[in-house]
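User: Thanks for the earlier help. One more: Transcriptional regulator MelR. Can you show the sequence and predicted structure together?

Assistant: Of course, both are below.
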Amino acid sequence: MLDWINRIKFNPKSPLTIQGHENNFGFQRHKPEVMENSHWHGHIEINYLFNCSADYLINGQKIKIPEGRMIIFWASIPHQMTAAYGDGEMVNIYIPLSAFLSWKLPQTFLDQLLNGEVLVANSLHPTDEHSTLMWQQDLELGQDPLMLQVIDEIRNRIRRMSLESYSSFELTNYDKHSENRSLVKGLTHIQVILRYIADHYDQKITVDDVAKHTGLHPNYAMKLFNQVMRISIKQYINKLRLQHAQALLIDTNQAVLNIALEAGFGSISRFYDIFQREFNMSPQKFRQEAFNH
């Protein structure tokens, strides 16, 4: 039901590699590793630095992350760890962008991330290291309900960060003529598209609606979205709707028809078709398996 990856592997031979697994969650705990090259992928990425600190290169700008911090950024921006200090460990968590946007976090927090900022929690919580160890143990069991619980707890930790004090490096004020600027050309349009879809996926929207809101020709909007997100606009909208439906199937006793309509599917038959194709089971079977674990 849920696809997780233990580690996102990067191609060391390429200075900028488009990675797979954009629709998978990921978790890894490891000693900090200096990278030879920048890379990018489609996730929202969290880095915890436990008893260690690190230097990063983010879209051509050098930043320093002090020991004992949590950072979050959109990994579509080219990034690279260039130095690490201390004997501690770091935890990387990878969140599919479609899932992240369905969490309805504060607008300012989202806008900063989608515009290329690295956000830093001003201090770790006393329970953060213990929580990441518990998440790791739960994920290793491979049980869907526990995985969903981990996702909920990660979401709540990010929500708390968004409501508490955090800092940024003001990377969007960086030299706009940087040689790496071309690597993220079009991300401003993507940010507008993603924001619009996140706010309207549970309504009847079309590619033309999305393009019109962005001020782009529909063909260009579709091409640009595919290039950056590695998924079509229609597929992306359906993923948001499916994630909404999954949550309702597990967290409520609503009828499947009501869930289909609330999540934005125009008909029960369309919901069944897309759900079956994505998860190889019916919505009822999904709900049953979640409660049987």
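User: Great, one quick takeaway?

Assistant: The mean pLDDT is 84.
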